[in-house]
């Protein structure tokens, strides 16, 4: 007989962090298509039937030698200059995917802003505050979660700034 597992036992580090904090959220699984021409984020938005402005992707950048997380709508891109300004830096470049994976413990396309191996400075695009809930990766391709942007900021220790374009 198969053993039942709780959501926490079967969860990703992001889900475990939310459960530990007692934060309300909803899981949104979808079938990831490796052959899709869409970016991971746009694929998630389409599969979930969600507004791409409400679905956010998690990107890592190197700002003056330190990794910083930028969380922006999937329909746009990360403004590296704005991200650097938001954290008091001068110059930002996208982090190497391998570095991003090692720092977060997640694979590219499934990087969540929650439950990362290292606590990194996080900047959420200010457009998120227009929504009661935003979608972010739950820590693997094919699984998003929705939560209040205020909870996302509290759990990541993040700030908001206009970092999307």
Write a structural description.
By secondary structure, the protein is an alpha/beta fold. The chain has 5 helices and 8 strands, in the order αβαββαβαβββαβ. A 5-stranded mixed beta sheet has the order 4-2-3-5-8. A 3-stranded antiparallel beta sheet has the order 1-7-6. The chain starts with 12 loop residues before the first helix and ends with a strand.
Which terms would index this structure?
5 helices; disordered N terminus; five-stranded mixed sheet; 165 residues; alpha/beta; three-stranded antiparallel sheet
Largest sheet geometry: 5 strands, mixed
How would you describe the shape?
A: globular
In total, how many beta strands?
A: 8
Structural class: alpha/beta
- End-to-end gap: 52 Å
Brief summary:
It contains five helices and eight strands.
How is the topology of this model organized?
Elements: H1 13-21, E1 26-29, H2 40-48, E2 56-63, E3 66-73, H3 80-86, E4 92-94, H4 97-104, E5 121-125, E6 134-140, E7 143-147, H5 149-156, E8 159-161
């Amino acid at each position: 007989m198969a053993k039942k597992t709780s959501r926490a036992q079967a969860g990703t580090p992001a889900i475990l962090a939310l459960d530990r904090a007692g934060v309300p959220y909803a899981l949104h699984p979808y079938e990831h298509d490796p052959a899709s021409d869409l970016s991971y984020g746009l694929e998630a938005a389409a599969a979930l039937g969600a507004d791409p402005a409400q679905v956010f992707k998690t990107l890592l950048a190197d700002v003056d030698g330190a990794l910083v997380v930028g969380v922006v709508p999937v329909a746009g891109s990360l403004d590296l200059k704005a991200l650097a300004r938001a954290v008091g830096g001068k110059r930002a470049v996208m982090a190497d995917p391998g570095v991003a994976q090692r720092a977060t413990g997640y694979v590219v396309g499934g990087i969540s802003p929650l439950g990362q191996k290292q606590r990194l400075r996080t900047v959420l695009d200010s457009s998120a505050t227009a929504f009661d809930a935003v979608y972010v990766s739950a820590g693997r391709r094919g699984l998003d979660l929705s939560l209040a942007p205020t909870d996302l900021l509290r759990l990541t220790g993040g700030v908001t700034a206009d970092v999307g374009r």
